[in-house]
Task: structure prediction
Amino acid sequence: MQIITIEQRCQLANQLAASDLSNLYLSREEVATLTGTTRRALEQLADKGRGPTPLRIGRRTVRYKAADVFSWLESLSKV
Result:
């Protein structure tokens, strides 16, 4: 697991917010970094249907729609 600072996480979030999210896909590592969680935690959330929906694009490759990730994060903040 890569350790990043809060400032780095905010910088990544700002870069993503400034881009067109409709055509942007994130790797599991990028989503883990952005959310401050682990790849395994994202896998477990997906298995339970509680996290952002992963898109399997290969046998071992998963991507997430950036718009879905941000919608999921917003839904968490409303709880």
In short: DSSP finds four helices and three strands in the chain. The helical segments are 6-17, 28-35, 39-48, 66-77. Residues 25 and 66 are 5 Å apart (CA to CA).
